[in-house]
Design a protein that fits this description.
This protein is α/β, with parallel strands linked by helices. The chain contains nine helices and eight strands. The strands form two sheets. Strands 2-3-1-4-8 form a five-stranded parallel beta sheet, with helices on both faces. It has a three-stranded antiparallel beta sheet with strand order 6-5-7. Strand 5 and strand 6 form a beta hairpin. The longest helix has 15 residues. The radius of gyration is 17 Å and the shape is globular. Bound molecules: BIS(adenosine)-5'-pentaphosphate. BIS(adenosine)-5'-pentaphosphate binds next to helix 1, helix 2, helix 3, helix 6 and strand 6.
């Protein structure tokens, strides 16, 4: 299965990707995670990207496409993948089409996660992650255990981090960028008969069930 998860920041793409990895044995390819790994490693790309990401803007298309091409060439992507947060612009979507045509692996579906903006802002400002493994929590609806506890995923003493771009002002800017540059992809994939939409304003399990319902015929 070759899947695109499309949706505004905080709509649950990363959360649902994590569940699909386990269930379907295909990797999540998150351009946000790939960029954050470069930032952590202090690469030249990471230093360039950090300034752009902290401002809530988009990293340039050529950098993103190069990174995705490299990632999809790895063996674990041969059986399929979930593209999370990519593509985000029409040139990225065109680049993806070319790349997938080159490797003979066309896209099966683009799933759009619909959630209202005010809910997204609350979700994102409540997001925290484990400093060791990146496991995502939410202080509003998926609270980590109290002080002195361990991460439910990696078992390390829990040390929570907040992403630098998860403050309210930057989130509002990310939403504006989404509406301007990424929203046109909805019509792009609709015109190609690949778009499926879900109401993603529901409990995590309910959203997973909606995604699985769409994937059942594709699987
Ligand atoms: P990226 O890391 O891709 O961030 P994003 O798209 O803004 O998406 P998020 O990770 O914020 O949200 P999500 O939908 O994954 O939500 P999550 O599941 O975590 O990008 C970051 C930056 O990198 C960009 O701003 C840009 O600068 C750069 N970048 C990345 N890709 C790029 C590209 N292709 N081109 C150019 N630049 C690029 O959930 C959020 C919270 O809500 C969590 O706390 C979670 O626990 C909670 N939650 C999840 N589901 C539910 C639910 N059903 N109910 C209640 N709470 C829920």
């Amino acid at each position: 299965m070759r899947i695109v998860f499309l949706g505004a920041p905080g709509s649950g793409k990363g959360t649902q990707s994590q569940r699909l990895i386990e269930r379907h044995g295909i990797p999540q390819v998150s351009t946000g995670d790939l960029l954050r790994a470069h930032v952590r490693d202090g690469t030249a790309l990471g230093r360039r990207a950090k300034v752009v990401m902290d401002a809530g803007k988009l990293v340039d298309d050529a950098t993103i496409l190069g990174m995705v091409r490299e990632r999809l060439a790895q063996p674990d992507a041969a059986r399929g993948f979930i593209l999370d947060g990519f593509p985000r612009t029409i040139p990225q979507a065109d680049g993806l089409n070319t790349l997938l045509a080159d490797i003979g692996q066309p896209l099966d579906v683009a799933i759009l996660f619909n959630v209202d903006d005010d809910k997204l802002i609350k979700r994102i400002s409540g997001r925290r992650s484990c400093a060791h493994c990146g496991q995502v929590f939410n202080i509003h609806n998926l609270p980590p255990a109290g002080p002195g506890s361990r991460c439910t995923q990696c078992g390390e003493p829990l040390q929570l981090m907040q992403r630098p771009d998860d403050n309210e002002a930057t989130v509002r800017h990310r939403l504006a960028v989404y509406n301007e540059q990424t929203r046109p992809l909805i019509d792009y994939y609709r015109a190609r008969g690949l778009l499926r939409e879900i109401d993603a304003d529901a409990a995590v399990d309910a959203v997973t069930a909606r995604v699985e319902q769409i994937l059942a015929p594709a699987g």
